[in-house]
Write a structure and sequence with these properties.
Layout lengths: L1 H5 L3 H9 L6 H11 L3 H4 L8 H8 L2
Length: 60
């Protein structure tokens, strides 16, 4: 479980997924490390495109 792997409460992950919480730099780096990706791939000041929009764009 991601929450256990990065040492936070599962609710914290839910808040992050909904955009209700901004992680500390340390937490963002731990999460990125779990997925072996850069922090920028997971977190941004600009909203990410929705999956539905990306799929529609890709099918055109």
């Amino acid at each position: 479980m991601l929450a256990d792997a990065v040492g936070v409460n599962p609710q914290t992950i839910g808040y992050l997924e909904r955009g209700d919480y901004s992680p500390s730099l340390e937490l963002a780096m731990k999460i990125a490390g779990q997925f072996d990706v850069s922090v920028e791939l997971l977190f941004s000041f600009q909203p990410f495109e929705s999956v539905a929009t990306a799929l529609r764009r890709a099918s055109v």
